[in-house]
Amino acid sequence: MDSNWTLMKHGLAETPSQEEWLSKTLPSGSRVGVDPYLFSYDMWKICNKGLKSSGNLLIPVSGNLVDSVWGEDRPAPPCSQLMIQGLKYSGLEWEKKIESLRMRMSNNVPKADYMVVTALDEIAWVLNLRGADITYNPVFFAYLVICMDSIHLFMDDEKLTDDIKRHLDGKASAEPVVVMHPYEDMQGFLSSLYNGDSGTLKTWISTSSSYALINTIPKRARILKSCPITESKSVKNAVEIEGMRNAHIRDAAALCQYFCWLEEEVPKGNVTEVSGATRLEKFRSEQDDFVSLSFSAISSSGPHAAVIHYSPSPETDLPITTQDIYLCDSGGQYRDGTTDVTRTMHFGTPSQHQKECLTRVLKGVISLATAVFPNGTKGTRLDSFARRALWDVGLDYLHGTGHGIGSFLNVHEGPQKVTFRVDPKETPLQAGQLISDEPGYYEDGQFGMRIENIILVKPIKTEYNFCDKGYLTFETITLVPIQTKLIDPSLMTAKEIEWLNEYHGQCRDIVGAELERQGRHKTLAWLIRETEPIG
Asked: Peptide bond preceding 138: is omega within 30 degrees of 0, i.e. cis?
């Protein structure tokens, strides 16, 4: 970016919102044109309100100016082949998911006659299908409209192989259960629902959908609320949970292989951020049911580790050395689950300050992982559990502590989260949800460190049960050793040391058995060494 641009980081207190910047920059009476397909209804309302307060207007424009400039040079949209996520992986037939949604539509007040689904991961989940139209995310471009007596799917018909057609034909109907439409016909179809005598019909649509689609539905007919699929998808069934466990075991085997390899190669001066990430992808690809990465690996050495969402490139590539902290945040997409793991390593001798910082991060990981809390608790109330050990000495981090994760779906999903940011749409944590547990600490220009595990929300029986609320806790699903070289046991309580030793015992027993099965004896020896008890 040249001197004509000013880069402003979203989310910082000193960074204005889009509408604030526009209001300050434009003269009163200005009209701001926006492609209404690229603004959610929620975002449109916020921006429009801000602009109106300064005498300006937000105007939907037909046609996208970037598309006009692109012209015939614009590449065709992705058209990946679809995969059927059968009962072996999904645990529930898609017809039963639709049946449950129709019950929610009937019981809603007011009753919903139609449900419009626009989030790609929700369409993939409800139909037990996966795609590859977006890198790292096993989704496909589509819209879905659920009616009481029909289902309408809008997508490129080139995706419709015979297997997919049979999958969507249902089990007990001579007529197609899912009616197919071209992707671009969605807005016209919505309009057609309200032609003629349809004054009492209601459409349930999430306010996260585009302003263009919601504006197609008459105001009197809109039920604007979160799509129920969001919550249903977040609560994993027994098959999905078991799949996530198994995926994390194989993923841990690949990560152990990588860290074992790094320990041998880094002292030789042969490994960089990019070459390390490439080798890690190779190790993952050798595991059963591997499909792709779940995001581009954050393979970051030294000062780059302080950049929370750093992405290595040939232009920024640094060597991984024995003098610097190395932070690796990575994950994989497997047919039975999605992974997201961060470990911080030092292949030389860490400073006492670095050991203290990593130990305090670890104490935060343990504090959240062992928390016990009543049903109805939101993640915002647990965020400080992960920060307390850092706060005790005046340290902190600027990102959230935990995000939801999909089952062979998006590596980030809602509504579950653990964060300090208040979100009016946040819902309480529920048994069966999976979230990340990832406190960190970063010193600009020096180093950064983070530990990230995926944890499962599950019920726990407590000695008492105040007001019959019922209580929840977490189970750690990720099974990758935490480098004890970076830990100062003198800063830990006896219970924290016990937790770490038990966790490493699980890593050794469960992942060790998988490494033995795969014949990776060198990595197994590394795992046994790295999981020796401390304290």
From this structure: no
**Bridge partners for 334 per DSSP:** 290, 337
Sign of dihedral through CA atoms 156, 159, 161, 167?
A: negative
Beta-strand pair 447-450/440-443: antiparallel
> Under 8 Å CB-to-CB from 14, ≥6 apart: which residues?
none
Cβ-based neighbour number of residue 358 at 10 Å: 28
Q: How many angstroms separate the CA atoms of 256 and 405, rounded?
A: 22
How many DSSP H helices and E strands does the chain contain?
Answer: 17, 24
Amino acid making up residue 199: G
Separation of alpha carbons 64 and 235, rounded Å: 38
Residue 97: alpha-carbon gap to chain centroid: 22
Instruction: Sort 524 into a burial class: Cβ within 10 Å, 0-12 / 13-18 / 19+.
Output: buried
Q: Is the peptide bond before 110 cis (omega within 30 degrees of 0)?
A: yes
User: For the CA atoms of 302, 304, 310, 316, what is the dihedral angle to 10 degrees?
Assistant: -110
Indicate the residue type of 487: I
Q: Is the dihedral of CA 26, 30, 35, 40 positive or negative?
A: positive
- CA torsion 479-484-489-493 (nearest 10°) is 0
- The contacts of residue 473 (CB under 8 Å, 6+ apart) are 370, 371, 372, 373, 457, 458, 459, 460
* pTM for the model: 0.94
The DSSP symbol for 81 reads P
Tell me the pLDDT of the chain (535 aa) as tens digits.
Answer: 688 888 888 777 889 999 999 999 999 999 999 999 999 999 999 999 999 999 999 999 988 889 899 998 999 889 899 999 999 999 999 999 999 999 999 999 999 999 999 999 999 999 999 999 999 999 999 999 999 999 999 999 999 999 999 999 876 554 558 999 999 999 999 999 988 766 789 999 999 999 999 999 999 999 999 999 999 999 999 999 999 999 999 999 999 999 999 999 999 999 999 999 999 999 999 999 999 999 999 999 999 999 999 999 999 999 999 999 999 999 999 999 999 999 999 999 999 999 999 999 999 999 999 999 999 999 999 999 999 999 999 999 999 999 999 999 999 999 999 999 988 888 999 999 999 999 999 999 999 999 999 999 999 999 999 999 999 999 999 999 999 999 999 999 999 999 999 999 999 999 999 999 999 999 999 999 999 999 8
Q: What share of residues in the chain are helix, strand, coil (percent, to 5)? A: 40, 20, 40
CB within 8 Å of 257: residues ≥ 6 apart:
283, 520, 523
- What is the rounded distance in angstroms from the CA atom of residue 400 to the CA atom of residue 102? 35
Q: Which residues, including other chains, have CB under 8 Å from residue 444's CB and lie 6 or more apart?
A: 303, 306
Distance CA(337)–CA(138), nearest Å, equals 11
Phi, psi of 218 (to 5 degrees): -55, 140
Question: For the chain, what's the residue count?
Answer: 535
Q: Which SS3 state, helix, strand or coil, does residue 326 take? A: strand
Query: If DSSP states are collapsed to H, E and C, what string results for 104-119?
Result: HHHHCCCCCCEEEECC
Query: Token match 């047919």: residue?
Result: 335
Closest by Cα among 361, 363, 343 to 453? 343
